[in-house]
């Protein structure tokens, strides 16, 4: 389950957080397909609890596995999956399977199903009280998780009072597998598994064993879904991400935290010369990496103050480094604007309807959508990653401080200046001689560069000069953008 199942030559996914299915379908066709993205992580597609003021997090409180949410209904989901697959962009669903709604209270969900969090009744599945962990499995005083040093409590008790499903039960696994197989049948390529830390690895292994292969009409025969499990492991708790590796990939939260320090100038960039496993991170092929996610960009999930789009300069630098470097399977975050004093704020909306994503003349988004993935530095580096994939990191250079450069075989080269003085260097790029477009300052249209040009000589050397005050203090060149 660790193979991302991207179409050939594609290597990065983007989390289109809280987008509508109809907007994602268009985005696949007009932008993600043409720009070489592998796929989209979508918000949870199943029925959720209706919470007043519609916070984004209501979608992490399942009511049933009917495919009706504010993002759209099942027909719209199918249309999105088909249209995206057609342009070689895959859909990865966020699977919230550890729990149902918060306990206490009752109501209806986004598909109209009734739920009762007092009696633990979810007739839309159906689940009833016997399908949840009880006092026999959970031994904390109030059934909630308090002690992350107690693995049994973390897995058998309630995460922020969410009704905790009993995944040791075959019936529960069958219902969840039925839901995931329904999505597989529609044509999704895989899953982000929410709150995987709160489920026993053995239960997940059995559950995933019930999954069918991907839709052969799209993927060919015998292809397993891609699974990446959300396990927040900063190295300080008894539950470690390594317990989940082998079942699928895991989310690597150390990655964004460590790069955050570097690109905020709290830890020398020159130390990145051995970035990767040597930094006490899992093997490259076992992880999904990212700079921030929908939780930590708003202080949820332990927060940790990652760099986000609110700090564009270090954010673009950190993302560029991530995409240029061989380590991990890369995910971009695509946000909506929100007031940082209100961490509940849902997506741009009118009434109960999520607003359309509009596209401005310069390719950026309007209507309250941030669309980091449409910033030139981001999408051009997604293309860079596709061009250099499989090439070794070589020709590392640094000034012992905050200026660094490295190449990827004879395909691409990057130079970054986070220092407080300018960079002026002739460096060995490993690239064939010629004129290259700097894909940070501009685009290549097939014949000319709209930004700066870099000359690589017959000896592979090129001269780079980067000021320290620019908004984008870096240069990236690759053989796909050579004049
Ligand atoms: C909401 C309300 C709660 C209320 C609850 C039930 O905020 O006050 O009790 O509803 O009514 C998201 C939001 C939550 C929200 C929830 C349900 O973040 O605020 O609760 O949706 O609507 C832990 C988990 C990790 C989890 C983070 C948030 O280990 O799996 O907490 N992340 C995922 C998603 C979230 C989502 C959920 C799980 C739930 O990405 O978006 O929650 O589906 C240490 C530990 C971490 C721990 C962290 C925070 O760092 O190492 O493991 O993360 O502390 O406690
Ligand atoms: Ca659990």
TrEMBL record:
Domain Alpha-amylase C-terminal: 394-482
Gene3D superfamilies registered for this protein in UniProt: Glycosidases, Golgi alpha-mannosidase II
Enzyme nomenclature, EC number: 3.2.1.1
Listed SMART domains: Aamy, Aamy_C
GO biological process: carbohydrate metabolic process
Cofactor(s) it depends on: chloride; Ca(2+)
Protein name (record): Alpha-amylase
Pfam family, one: Alpha-amylase
Chain ranges of the Glycosyl hydrolase family 13 catalytic domain: 11-385
Family: Belongs to the glycosyl hydrolase 13 family.
Catalytically driven reaction(s): Endohydrolysis of (1->4)-alpha-D-glucosidic linkages in polysaccharides containing three or more (1->4)-alpha-linked D-glucose units
Single GO MF descriptor: metal ion binding
UniProtKB keywords: Calcium, Carbohydrate metabolism, Chloride, Glycosidase, Hydrolase, Metal-binding, Signal
Phylogenetic lineage: Eukaryota, Metazoa, Spiralia, Lophotrochozoa, Mollusca
Organism: Mizuhopecten yessoensis
CDD domains recorded: AmyAc_bac_euk_AmyA
């Amino acid at each position: 389950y660790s193979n991302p199942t991207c179409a050939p030559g594609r290597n990065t996914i983007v989390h289109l957080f809280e987008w509508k299915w109809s907007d994602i379908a268009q985005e696949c066709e007009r932008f993600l397909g043409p720009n070489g993205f592998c796929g989209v992580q979508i918000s949870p597609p199943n029925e959720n609890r209706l919470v007043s003021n519609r916070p984004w997090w209501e979608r992490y409180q399942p009511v049933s596995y009917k495919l009706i949410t504010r993002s759209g209904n099942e027909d719209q989901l199918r249309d999105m999956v088909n249209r995206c697959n057609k342009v070689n962009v895959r859909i990865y669903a966020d699977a919230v399977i550890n729990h149902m709604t918060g306990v206490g209270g009752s109501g209806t969900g986004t598909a109209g199903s009734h739920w009762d969090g007092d009696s633990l009744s979810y007739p839309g599945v159906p689940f009833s009280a016997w399908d949840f962990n009880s006092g026999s499995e959970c031994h904390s005083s109030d059934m909630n998780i308090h002690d992350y040093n107690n693995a049994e409590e973390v897995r058998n008790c309630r995460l922020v009072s969410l009704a905790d499903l009993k995944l040791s039960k075959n019936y529960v696994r069958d219902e969840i597998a039925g839901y995931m197989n329904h999505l597989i049948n529609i044509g999704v390529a895989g899953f982000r598994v929410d709150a995987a830390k709160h489920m026993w690895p053995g239960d997940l292994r059995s559950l995933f064993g019930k999954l069918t292969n991907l839709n052969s009409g799209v993927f060919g025969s015998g292809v397993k879904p891609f699974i990446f499990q959300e396990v927040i492991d900063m190295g300080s708790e008894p539950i470690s991400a390594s317990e989940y590796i082998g079942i699928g990939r895991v989310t690597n939260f150390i990655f964004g935290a460590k790069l955050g320090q570097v690109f905020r100038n709290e830890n020398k960039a020159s130390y990145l010369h051995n970035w990767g496993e040597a930094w006490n991170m899992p093997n490259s092929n076992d992880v999904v990496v990212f700079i921030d996610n929908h939780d930590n960009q708003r202080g949820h999930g332990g927060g940790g103050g990652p760099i986000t789009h609110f700090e564009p300069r270090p954010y673009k630098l950190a993302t560029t480094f991530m995409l240029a470097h061989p380590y991990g399977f890369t995910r971009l975050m695509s946000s909506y604007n929100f007031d940082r004093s209100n961490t509940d704020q849902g997506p741009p909306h009118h009434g109960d309807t999520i607003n359309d994503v509009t596209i401005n003349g310069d390719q950026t988004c309007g209507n309250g959508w941030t669309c980091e993935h449409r910033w030139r530095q981001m999408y051009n580096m997604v293309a860079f990653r596709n061009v250099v994939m499989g090439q070794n990191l070589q020709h590392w250079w640094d000034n012992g401080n905050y200026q660094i450069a490295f190449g990827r075989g004879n395909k691409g080269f990057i130079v970054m200046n986070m220092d407080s003085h300018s960079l002026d260097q002739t460096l060995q790029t490993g690239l064939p001689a010629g004129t290259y477009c700097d894909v940070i300052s501009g685009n290549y249209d097939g014949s000319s560069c709209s930004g700066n040009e870099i000359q690589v000589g017959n000896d592979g050397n090129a001269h780079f000069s980067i000021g320290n005050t620019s908004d984008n203090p870096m240069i990236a060149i690759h053989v796909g953008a050579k004049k």
